[in-house]
Design a protein that fits this description.
It is a single chain. With 65 residues, the protein is an all-alpha fold. It has a single domain, classed as Signal recognition particle, SRP54 subunit, M-domain (434 Repressor (Amino-terminal Domain)), CATH 1.10.260.30. The longest helix is centred in the last third of the chain and has 23 residues. It is elongated and about 40 Å long.
């Protein structure tokens, strides 16, 4: 089971970082058999990738290289 399988539809579709509080992260970790630290790292990576993706969308260049 992955961490995302332990998330609700609202959590998966949300762009609001305030939605993911400590109790939600603890529930996701417990439901996926992971450490809370791993859940936090996953969300930080998702935020980083979303920021990178929005930067690519703002550029005129199709290729990010």
């Amino acid at each position: 089971m992955t961490m995302m399988d332990s998330m609700t539809d609202e959590e998966l579709d949300s762009t609001n970082p305030k939605l993911m509080n400590e109790s939600r992260m603890t529930r996701i970790a417990r439901g996926s058999g992971r450490q809370v630290r791993e859940v936090v790292e996953m969300f930080e990576e998702c935020k980083r990738l979303a920021k990178m993706k929005s930067g690519w969308a703002d550029s005129k260049c199709f290729c990010p290289f």
